[in-house]
Amino acid sequence: MDAIFGLPQIQSVAKALWQVGKKHKVWAFHAEMGTGKTTFIHALCEYLGVKDAISSPTFAIVNQYDSAEAGVLLHMDWYRLKDEEEAIMAGIEDHLLSEQYCFIEWPEKAPGLLPDDTFHVYLQLLDPATRRLYTDAEAI
Ligand SMILES: Nc1ncnc2c1ncn2[C@@H]1O[C@H](COP(=O)(O)OP(=O)(O)O)[C@@H](O)[C@H]1O
Ligand SMILES: [Mg+2]
After folding, report:
1. By C-alpha distance, which of 122, 100, 96, 118 is closest to 32?
2. How far apart are CA 115 and CA 8, in angstroms?
3. 121-132, pLDDT tens digit by residue?
4. Sign of the CA dihedral running 2, 36, 68, 76
5. Using a 6 Å cutoff on CB, does residue 5 contact ligand 1?
6. Relative to the CA of 83, which of 23, 29, 30, 77 has its CA 20 to 30 Å away?
């Protein structure tokens, strides 16, 4: 998948990405700070029928949402983790093995913990109002 979009199209891109990725439980969102990882994950959770207010996980490593469509969703932000050891101490491995959907920001902090069948998603800032999302790392 390769899509160029702004905020007005984010719901339809989230829907399309769900169709492509739903067989994977662990999703790794790769992007620079300020590109739109949190915003996109929130749009995805909204598409999946999360009703409770979605907070930014900036100050929590793991936020849990209940989705009508996909059960429990775990939204993780690994930004404040130093490395794999810290991630293990924070109990991240148990979440990754829980068979619940895990949407991860800053997966680069502990890449060794990601399962082999992790769904890798890449976001790029094209201009202030436009982003590119693609799922094939070769397509840069
Ligand atoms: N698809 C998009 N199109 C335009 N602006 C976006 C898009 N996604 C996010 N933004 C804007 O980019 C900024 C950073 O988004 P955020 O989700 O916090 O980034 P990240 O989690 O990657 O640091 C926010 O102001 C947000 O409104
Ligand atoms: Mg973020």
Report:
1. 122
2. 33
3. 999 999 999 999
4. positive
5. yes
6. 23
Phi, psi dihedrals of residue 13, rounded to the nearest 5°: -70, -40
Interior angle at CA 16, CA 57 and CA 12, nearest 5: 75
CA atoms of 13 and 8, how far apart (whole Å): 10
Number of domains the chain contains: 1
Q: Which residue positions in the chain have pLDDT lower than 50?
A: 140
Residue 53: per-residue pLDDT: 67
For ligand 1, is residue 109 a contact (CB within 6 Å)?
A: no
Instruction: Return the ligand 1 atom nearest residue 39 CA.
Output: 17
Helix (H, G, I), strand (E, B) or coil at 123: strand
Segments forming the whole domain that contains residue 105: 2-139
Q: Residue 87 Cα, ligand 1 centroid: separation in angstroms?
A: 25
Q: How much distance in Å is there from the Cα of 105 to the middle of ligand 1?
A: 13
Ligand lying nearest the CA atom of residue 43: 1
The sign of the CA dihedral 81, 31, 140, 44 is positive
